[in-house]
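tool_log.txt
---
The assistant was asked to compare two proteins side by side. It first ran the structure predictor on the initial sequence, then on the second. Raw inputs and outputs are pasted verbatim so the downstream comparison step can read them without reformatting.
(1)
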Amino acid sequence: MIPLTHITENVFKLKKADRIIGYYLYDKFDESIARIDALLVDSQSYHSLYMIINLGGFLQVRGKAVVLPVEVCEVKDLGKVKTEWRKESMLGSPSPINIMSMTNSEEELIRDYYALPLQRSSKNQGK
């Protein structure tokens, strides 16, 4: 599998549609879940594969970092991304030990949790 690159800013290498860092994630009931802090992208094409959000933090305490596949989300308008998943369900998702270097087995656990194919589709890797 092609390695992933951790991106924390909307850099020019990202497609315009993938420049969602800083957007807010909402659930199907239009309740705010979290701010999108970073993306994990294909290291060759810079195609976005995962969003990284932080759940459960309070004041200066960081919550749980959640890696969310882009397939379960949809960009609605400027600053807004929607998902059918609830915040409570995302809190139960598996998290990689080190987001900067997620292993294949950690990625497979995350994809399985969200009921997605275990391997990234080849069309995502070629864009």
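(2)
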Amino acid sequence: MATQHSRSAARLMMAPAVVLLLGWMLVPLIMTLMFSFKKYLPLRGGDLGWVGFENYVRFVSSSAFWPSVVATLTIVGGVLLITVVFGVLLAILLNQPMWGQGVVRILVIAPFFVMPTVSALVWKNMFMDPVNGLLAHLWKFFGATPIEWLSQASLPSIVMIVSWQWLPFATLILLTAIQSLDSEQLEAAEMDGAPPLKRFGYITLPHLGRAITVVVLIQTIFLLAVFAEIFVTTGGAFGTRTLTYLIFQRVLESQNVGLGSAGGVYAIILANIVAIFLMRAVGKNLDA
């Protein structure tokens, strides 16, 4: 009886937080759905009534829609590839005994705590500037012509900037997973004469399966909504306009809330499709 009473008390105490959380999620979603079926122009007449699926047809038939989807998936795929591969390598390196190991780990993880806007400004002005940037001076040192990164290699530049921000997160998760690996397995394999690559492929990498799954899923959720880095660097030009940035342009620059809301619904659909695909592709590791 006491157990039932304590459960009821726990539910009662949790209820306000649950209601607040549901309201925080459901109210914006319901408003987005409602506005997506309306012609709402705040500075040009306000609410002009219901238009059905007109906003959805206009948004998906726009010449900028599919290029924005491709740009979004390209950035997500590129960042995931870089952060997972280099995250595994960095985690293995940081797990080795070295002088000043704690300081090195802090320096590696530090970029994750830098605001995206600040990070993008640093990369834009200090590294990728074609005249005074560090990369430009490096190119000149080797006698090559500096690259105008944000115009000539715009998507790779965005991928590089975002990867620099998310690599510490992947490294931290993977380092934690490596530290939980039973060292006796590696020692036994080494005594049996297994080379380092085989020890990595047959012992370390399978052990990191769950951690890699977590990294991929969490990063994908946030990477689908990348905005600040593009806003600060290219402004959506040179093929870097993602779906999120296209929605921003429709809502704020074109002042068409209905059209932007329809784009938001498409973004939710895209996020769910990607999430389902990832869960089917790598989610099996969670059950291993």
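---
observation on (2): The beta strands are 38-41, 46-50. The domain at 2-287 is CATH 1.10.3720.10 (MetI-like fold).
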